[in-house]
């Protein structure tokens, strides 16, 4: 029986189809971080563990698609896009899912001490990183149209505006992260050092999600410019 590589089939339909498929899985992976943190703050460790498993599963799916793309991507693309640029874009997307997995892994290492101020600020920070990922996914969803237009015209302007908005969202997450770190350092005298470390690492890893989302936007900007 003849078998068909689904990634190869996607490439036949669209040069960016597999990359878009990968980004959809990445977005699903990050979306699970929101209920993960909600479960953490509610003290529902069983739920934290369950969602962690789901995040790891989705990150694995993203890795599978990434590896299939790498092995299937034609050596020569008849496009105004360099193969290396496309792979760099893919790697940046994959780093978003890797960061979500890092967050999930941290939250299952051990139970962390809770603080009211941190608990109050954390959900908005996590949601804003989700917004960055969603914006990133919407940008990647425009790739087909960009190809059809030869990376020229009003469609390019629209995508670049979306990239600018992504940058603004990422800047907001940076500011939220700094506020959280300041609040965390005020707890230095009354929180165990390991808990302080875990909270700090959690803030950094959540922030990485937005950082890598912005990186995807920046790489797409370069891709369009070339």
Task: Write up this protein.
- This protein is elongated.
- It has one domain: Methane Monooxygenase Hydroxylase, Chain G, domain 1 (Up-down Bundle), CATH 1.20.58.220.
- The chain has helices at residues 6-13, 17-31, 33-41, 45-72, 83-106, 116-140, 143-148, 154-185, 193-225.
- It is mostly helical.
- The termini are far apart.
- The chain has nine helices and no strands.
Concise account of the structure shown:
With 226 residues, this protein is mostly helical. It has a single domain (11-225), classed as Phosphate transport system protein phou homolog 2, domain 2 (Methane Monooxygenase Hydroxylase, Chain G, domain 1, Up-down Bundle), CATH 1.20.58.
Q: What's the helix and strand layout?
A:
Blueprint: H1 6-13, H2 17-31, H3 33-41, H4 45-72, H5 83-106, H6 116-140, H7 143-148, H8 154-185, H9 193-225
- Please compute the radius of gyration using only Cα atoms: 19 Å
Low confidence ranges:
none
Largest sheet features: none
Cα(first) to Cα(last) distance is: 43 Å
Q: What is the tally of helical segments?
A: 9
Structural class: mainly alpha
Helix content: over 70%
**CATH topology grouping:** Methane Monooxygenase Hydroxylase, Chain G, domain 1
CATH architecture, by name, is Up-down Bundle
User: What general form does the structure show?
Assistant: elongated
The overall pLDDT, averaged over residues, is 87
Q: Tell me the total number of β-strands.
A: 0
Query: What is the C-level CATH assignment?
Result: Mainly Alpha
Q: Provide the CATH superfamily.
A: Phosphate transport system protein phou homolog 2, domain 2
Beta content comes to under 5%
- Number of self-contained structural domains: 1
Order of helices and strands: HHHHHHHHH
């Amino acid at each position: 029986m003849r078998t068909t590589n689904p990634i190869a089939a996607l490439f036949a339909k669209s040069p960016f189809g597999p990359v878009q498929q990968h980004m959809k899985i990445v977005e699903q992976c990050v979306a699970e971080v929101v209920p993960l943190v909600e479960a953490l703050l509610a003290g529902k460790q069983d739920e934290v563990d369950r969602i962690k498993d789901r995040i790891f599963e989705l990150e694995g799916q993203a890795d599978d698609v990434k590896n299939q793309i790498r092995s299937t991507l034609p050596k020569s693309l008849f496009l105004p896009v360099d193969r290396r640029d496309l792979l760099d874009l893919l790697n940046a997307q994959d780093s978003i899912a890797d960061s979500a997995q890092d967050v999930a892994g941290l939250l299952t290492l051990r139970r962390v001490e809770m603080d009211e101020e941190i608990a109050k600020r954390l959900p908005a920070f996590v949601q804003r990183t989700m917004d960055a990922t969603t914006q990133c996914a919407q940008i990647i969803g425009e790739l087909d149209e960009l190809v059809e237009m030869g990376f020229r015209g009003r469609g390019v302007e629209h995508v670049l505006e979306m990239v600018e908005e992504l940058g603004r969202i990422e800047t907001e997450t940076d500011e939220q992260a700094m506020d959280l770190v300041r609040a965390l350092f005020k707890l230095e005298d009354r929180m165990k050092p390991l808990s302080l470390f875990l909270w700090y690492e959690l803030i950094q890893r959540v922030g990485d999600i937005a950082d890598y989302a912005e990186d995807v936007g920046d790489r797409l900007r370069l891709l369009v410019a070339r």
